[in-house]
Amino acid sequence: MKKLLTICLIIGASITQVLAKDKVLIFCKTAGFHHNSIAVGVPAIIKLGQENNFDVDSTTNAAKFTVDNLKQYKAVIFLSTTGDVLDDAQQTAFEQYIKAGGGFVGVHAATDTEYDWPWYGKLVGAYFKSHPKQQDATLNVVDRNFIATKHLPETWKRWDEWYNYKWIADDLHVLIKIDEKSYTGGENGDNHPMAWYHNFDGGRAFYTELGHTDESYADPLYLNHLLGGIKYAMGRKK
Length: 238
What we know:
Layout: H1 2-19, E1 22-27, H2 38-51, E2 54-59, H3 67-70, E3 75-79, H4 88-99, E4 103-107, H5 118-124, E5 126-130, E6 135-141, E7 155-160, E8 164-168, E9 173-178, E10 193-200, E11 203-208, H6 220-234
Parallel strand pairs: 1-2, 1-3, 3-4, 4-11
Antiparallel strand pairs: 5-8, 6-7, 6-9, 9-10, 10-11
C-alpha cells in the first residue's frame, strides 16, 4: 500500500510539474521619477500572460530579490523602474539569477535605473541621458525576423517619449532605430536604437524604450512587441 501511495505521489507531482505555468515577475519600484503608465502597464502584462499561458506576479518590494525567490521566474520585467532600487545583496541575487539562465525585460525607464551598478548597465544595454517633449516620430524596424518585431511594419510612426542615451553597449542586437530627422531633440545620431536584445552573462536580456504613455498599453502593435520580448526572455521561440 505504501509503495502504491508513493507511486501515486510521484505521478501526481510529475503531472503538477507538467501542468505548472511559466511565471514572470514585474518589478516596478521607483526611486526617482514615477511613471503613471505603470498603473496600466501591470494589468496589461497580466492580461498578456492570461492570453499566452504564463502567470504574472508584480511587486515594488525589492526584498523579493533573493536567490530562492527568483528561481521560480522565467523572466523578470523592470517596468519603468527608476533610480537605485536594489541594495547590494539584492543585486548579487539578481546577478546569480541571470547567470543561472534567467531572463530580463527592461521597459522604458529601465535604462534610468541603477547608474552605479555597471553590471546592470551592461544587462539593460544603455543608460538614459535626456528626452525632448513627447511627440510623433518614425521608427525604423531594422530586424523584422525577431519574435518581438516580426509583426511590425518596416517604418512605424508613433507618439511616445523618446530617450537619448549617455552610454550604449556595443554587443546589442538592435531591432528598432529612431529616425532623428522625424522629430526634434534627438542626440544619438543615425545610430539611435530604441529596442534590442542580447545574450548576457548566461541569461537573456530584451529592452524596449517604448512605453512611456498610458496609450501604449492599449496599442496592439506595442503590446505584441512587448509580448515578443517577454517570450524571448522566457526562452520561448514563438
